[in-house]
Amino acid sequence: MSTYSPSLRIELITTGDQAGTWGTTTNSNLGTLIESAIAGYVSVSITSANQALTALNGAADQSRNQTIALTTTTTAAFNVYAPPAEKTYVIYNASLYTATVYNSTVLGNTTAAGAGVAIPAGKTMTVWSDGTNFALQNTHFVGTVVGNVTGNVTGDLTGTATNATNINISATASTDSTTSVVLVGTQATGNQPPFIDSGLNYNANTNTLSADGFAVGGGAFTTNNWTIVQSGSSLAFRFNGTTVFSISSAGAIVAANNVTGFGTP
Q1: What is the pLDDT of residues 223-234, one digit of tens each?
Q2: 175 or 38: whose pLDDT is higher?
Q3: pLDDT confidence of residue 166
Q4: Is the domain of 61 the same as that of 173?
Q5: Do 127 and 99 form a contact (C-beta atoms < 8 A)?
Q6: Residue 157: its pLDDT value, please?
Q7: Domain check: are 18 and 58 in the same one?
Q8: Cα–Cα distance between 140 and 137 in angstroms, integer?
Q9: Residue 69's pLDDT band (boundaries 50, 70, 90)?
Q10: Which residue range forms the structural domain that includes residue 27?
Q11: How confident is the model at residue 154 (pLDDT cuts 50, 70, 90)?
Q12: Residue 252, domain member (yes or no)
């Protein structure tokens, strides 16, 4: 009597069985089941908030495929359950909602055996399972990334941002006094001064770095009302666009109003 392999559910013929017909089973194993596990693709429509991928012994199913596209009619985020078996998947979430993939506790049910991986709407991710927990296939990247990148970086991030409208960097308190953000490129000519802050926003179109009410960029330091900028060989202090104070390169000071010494600001 045949048994089935634990991960891919391939039919294992008992010695001496299927005389004269074993070729059909072998062809199905090799030409359909193993081939789909290596190179197969299937599109699956999710019709409920929790849905298990089909998993059949010795026959074509959804969960054996290498690549799976997910669509949905749920109009909300949904969960997908793969068999409790070791496997790697490429999953394209073709829906407008977040899809989370889990291993089921037993074949075909919708109870999560362990951790899952959330796949944002419209994104493709490679995930792997140890039979209980799903995890990202890659957590270290070397090379060029094309497209939007969202997530956390632990360690150094070095590279070139091309056609980036906004580079948003958030940093928590650091015990490393050398922590800095260095911007280099055609939009940011030369190295920009290092900054340590709880929230930085860099706009490559205007070459402006801003945080908590001030901005640095285009040769100026700007707050809500004040701007400090070089004007010719002088340093100009402007309030709402009007220069009210300047210092020349020779040290001469010019004020638009009275200058008080030893007073209270």
Answers
A1: 888 889 888 889
A2: 38
A3: 58
A4: no
A5: no
A6: 66
A7: yes
A8: 9
A9: very high
A10: 3-136
A11: low
A12: yes
Query: How many degrees, rounded to 5, is the angle at CA 259 between CA 255 and CA 260?
Result: 165
Residue 217 lies in a domain: no
3-state helix/strand/coil string of the chain: CCEECCCCCCEECCCCCCCCCHHHHHHHHHHHHHHHHHHCEEEEEECCCEEECCCCCCCCCCCCCCEEEEEECCCCCEEEEECCCEEEEEEEECCCCCEEEEEECCCCCCCECCCCEEECCCCEEEEEEECCCEEECCCCCCCCCCCCCCCCCCCCCCCCCCCCCEEEEECCCCCCCCCCCCCCCCCCCCCCCCCCCCEEEEECCCCEEEECCEEEECCEEECCCEEEEEECCEEEEEECCEEEEEECCCCCEEECCCCCCCCCC
Q: What is the pLDDT of residue 124?
A: 95
Q: How many domains does the chain have?
A: 3
Residues 66 and 130 occupy one common structural domain: yes
- Is 213 within a domain? no
Q: Is residue 152 part of a domain?
A: no
Is pLDDT above 60 for 245?
yes
Task: Taking residues 240-253, report their average pLDDT.
Answer: 92
Give the tens place of pLDDT for each residue, 160-176: 666 665 555 555 544 44
- Amino acid present at 215: A
